[in-house]
């Protein structure tokens, strides 16, 4: 039984090793033709057209722009929801609202994508000069709604873990409920909140369908949220549809982009774990 349990534990480890091996093996052939510097620092991405260009910066910029918008939405709404549920909501209201928020995390991402394309974008076009239907703003907003339950749930758990004595001491000094929530509870739970935000942001960086459907497929090096962009995951989907011959340089680009995306999310998760270990308070 001990061996069986050990094998069950090693499944995830072996799967990770297999993923890394596959990405490195296929990316090696790509970087034999395209230099790492050209790949990282190039400002034009056009592997499917002549003349070919393999500068991944437009994909990185599109990915970070979409994830940044999603992070702002998720942190604002998620932290507000966490403060309300932790400090203001009665138990009956909390038992209703919290499951409803968590339902958002279970909605298929393809539904979010079409929601962004068919509802959010026309709504934004009614008061913003968005020239095309594909734009990163609507994709980022909807992606923020998708990851908001992760921020709110983990942040609320961190706030609930703050000892009651700290709240009582602040009330005894004459603080209001809002002051207790913002100046005592949130700072005390800050490591958990930061970790929740980083984990949610890494989830947004790896999101595929929402940005593929709503943000377009234009590798555009821009910081304008009203324009169409292409993220790293959207490009992988575009090339992985089966029309690209296996073994070609274009085919290997998806592994190079996937390897870079893997490293980005890995770094964010490492930073999140470091923040938790470094700043966690023991009461």
Describe the 3D structure:
The relative contact order is 0.16. The longest helix has 32 residues. This protein has a two-stranded antiparallel ribbon with strand order 1-2. The protein has a single domain, classed as Orthogonal Bundle (MetI-like fold). Helix content is 73%, strand content 1%.
Helix content: over 70%
Query: How does CATH name the architecture?
Result: Orthogonal Bundle
CATH fold field value: MetI-like fold
N-end to C-end Cα span: 38 Å
What is the number of helices?
Answer: 12
| SSE pattern | HHEEHHHHHHHHHH
The CATH first-level class comes to Mainly Alpha
Largest sheet: 2 strands, antiparallel
Low-confidence stretches: none
User: Which value, in Å, is the CA radius of gyration?
Assistant: 22 Å
Kindly state the mean pLDDT as a whole number?
Answer: 87
Shape: globular
Tell me the total number of β-strands.
2
The helix/strand class is mainly alpha
Neighbour order of strands in the largest sheet: 1-2
Task: Report the β-strand fraction as a percent range.
Answer: under 5%
